[in-house]
Amino acid sequence: MIITINGKPGSGKSSLATMLADRLGLAYYDIGALRREAARAKGMTLEEYNRWGETTDETDRDVDAFQEKLGKEKDNLVITGRTSFYFIPHSVKIFLDVSMHDAAKRIFNDKKLNDRNETSNVSSLDEVERSLNERMRSDNLRYKKYYNIDVYDTSLYDFVLDTSGVSLEGVYEKVVSYLKTKGLLTSD
Question: How many helices (H) and strands (E) are present in the chain, helices listed first?
């Protein structure tokens, strides 16, 4: 089983993927972390890297090829990434939604915020929310331009869950319940 997870920034994708991988014995791949590392190697924040990516597919090409290859060669994994569902079409496609206010609060209160290399100038909740909206705008522009897809169109996913006000354990339980109803999981 391959589970691909996308969603709005701050919806809990990485936290859910880590929990699923740990509890279900799956490998975990984080495409966002790969992109943040590539941005850091170029001396950019992720926001700057995304803006550059609006003019060249160089920012996405390698990670997209990597996840496409994973989907063809591996099994029993969970992967978080904006285009993972697209490059691994036979996966179970999960989308996590969240209110932008809740997302901004989660990210602003995340002790790892500075390590994530998301953006500069995030000293307030409003600045985090502005950054999230900019990120989604850039994602939409890039993936529409390069692949003609809207990665935030929830109709493209098998299971959509709004994580606003839901604990991580609650999100995990809902996803596992969905997997069980589809016969993809018998126990956790």
Answer: 8, 5
